[in-house]
Amino acid sequence: TSSAGPDLLQALNPTQAQAADHFTGPALVIAGAGSGKTRTLIYRIAHLIGHYGVHPGEILAVTFTNKAAAEMRERAGHLVPGAGDLWMSTFHSAGVRILRTYGEHIGLRRGFVIYDDDDQLDIIKEVMGSIPGIGAETQPRVIRGIIDRAKSNLWTPDDLDRSREPFISGLPRDAAAEAYRRYEVRKKGQNAIDFGDLITETVRLFKEVPGVLDKVQNKAKFIHVDEYQDTNRAQYELTRLLASRDRNLLVVGDPDQSIYKFRGADIQNILDFQKDYPDAKVYMLEHNYRSSARVLEAANKLIENNTERLDKTLKPVKEAGQPVTFHRATDHRAEGDYVADWLTRLHGEGRAWSEMAILYRTNAQSRVIEESLRRVQIPARIVGGVGFYDRREIRDILAYARLALNPADDVALRRIIGRPRRGIGDTALQKLMEWARTHHTSVLTACANAAEQNILDRGAHKATEFAGLMEAMSEAADNYEPAAFLRFVMETSGYLDLLRQEGQEGQVRLENLEELVSAAEEWSQDEANVGGSIADFLDDAALLSSVDDMRTKAENKGAPEDAVTLMTLHNAKGLEFPVVFIVGVEQGLLPSKGAIAEGPSGIEEERRLFYVGITRAMERLLMTAAQNRMQFGKTNAAEDSAFLEDIEGLFDTVDPYGQPIEYRAKTWKQYRPTVPAATTAVKNTSPLTAELAYRGGEQVKHPKFGEGQVLAVAGVGERQEVTVHFASAGTKKLMVKFANLTKL
Ligand code: ATP
Ligand code: MG
What we know:
This protein is of the alpha/beta class. It is 43% helix and 15% strand. The strands form six sheets. Strands 13, 14, 15, 16, 17, 18, 19 and 20 form an eight-stranded mixed sheet that branches. The chain has a six-stranded parallel sheet with strand order 3-2-8-9-1-10, sandwiched between helices.
């Protein structure tokens, strides 16, 4: 790539160059997939520095993931010096940074913690019990959804109560508002904020304390937002406030790629940009540099079927290329094997594994594909799978760390006070919590006072010992590097001993904890985190999106760099790969069942998602579907996605060897909900499955947990693990070798 100089913009086409040369005032770059929006944005940043002399420390770019932010910084760094001073961030990370610096102005106490989805549920469960209109059958998740949605719209509990809907997600409006209200009080008492707060509290800070806004604006005189079509109301407002003084705001996006409505994203934000900024310059990019012409034609044709859209032109720059193909496999296993076969074949033709990606609608689809790949030893990297940071042992250790930093974190305390067991049982804990409530203090303070204040009848010293342990950890937090501190926590808490006694399963968990220490070590070595504390590490860990490297690495330990990428269509946004497989192109998966039930706007959102998937492909696009698919342990007949009809004639239907065959289209009109709930056993087509003790779906019995059903299987032979749902004990993950299961 070229260096700073007058001809920096030569690497762009004329319209891209105009947009990149945009200096002051608002601007909108609106264009289809692969048209160079992100590239233009990076060049614009470099051009601001190299040509207009803007200091990098005055430039902010907001991206959708931390990974995208890091890449953008790196790419800008190749073009101009000083990129290290750029502020590249997601909305959430920007919120954390602002609130950590200035949060005290709006009453946030120092050392607040960030609560994730699970922590939210913990508080919700606690507060929902006593609210009229909320029954025992109400799922805490529903309430969390209401709260998150309210926050993405910047609604307070009172706003929610004033809305006109009598019911919100099935709950009476006032009950929903009351749950939200109590949740806020509890959360605040624990000195915690949730993900939504990272944006809403920053907005509140800016509105209530103009002096702070002004200071932050000095670091964001030129603001950029990538993927603007997926911003929600709160992010929109944050952007508006930040840009209100200098008005140098450049946003880029594609309304056809808006795929996060379910998380509150509002496509209207990009469509109304010109209303909000009547003087905005609009740049439309009309050439697609990414995909071969055949792939692009399919994408264009598909998206034309959406009615709620802005018509755009997108012309190919590349040649026709290879035909797009569609293969219908007999079942989900055969589908996986087909993909594996093609990967092997393409690799043999010289494709690096890392040039190829497999995209699917739901994470649940990845397991069978992974198995097919593993069987023929294709290295794979799964993005956003079973979260490493969601594992019990990881969450436990991080909860200790959180509590050490923030003694008010009752959620963390409840999580770990019995891991390992310390002789503080349920009754004792209830008493401690009760005392804390009446004395308006934390449960940890109650523990510290257990003996003196006679809070517990018996075993008060156990509670004071625990408080002492946490005090030692607090002290260590100030003195140790993140990795060393985590080691200290693992050892002194007795957690390592606990796992050492747990045999094989404990061994796996020990390895995961080792991985956590390595992750912290690596984090500290990163240039951006020099001198960073454990608190900073926890912030970053809390904000990891599923595609971020720190996460992907931990989840794929041992996977080589050169590996095939497996991810959901959602996670693939903004990325590109020479070869893309989209699997499960079936009615009920893509579009999803939920979207079909929702009707036209649900279908259009899914069509955008499919559009995102197709437009990731640079050279080859291979689509597959299964005729029979196992879901939740049952195999049902599946039908091709109706979206295939949208692009009929633009792809070849092929047999297992890739040879064209006649396409037996089931058209959208002919489509009927599948009748045959007839559970047909899938023929065992793969030689390897013979080795598998379990394939999923079996009814089993466990000596302790009772009867259950196998939901998922991972690994083979000695190392096979099964996920079993037990009627009485819930879902458990077990090593087959040690679990003592009997098939029923
Ligand atoms: P998406 O909508 O998927 O986010 P995008 O509009 O952001 O796509 P980019 O990712 O910026 O598109 O660009 C797509 C590909 O085309 C990249 O590989 C990029 O380097 C290349 N590209 C874009 N513009 C040009 C150009 N003028 N010359 C050469 N390559 C280009
Ligand atoms: Mg982009």
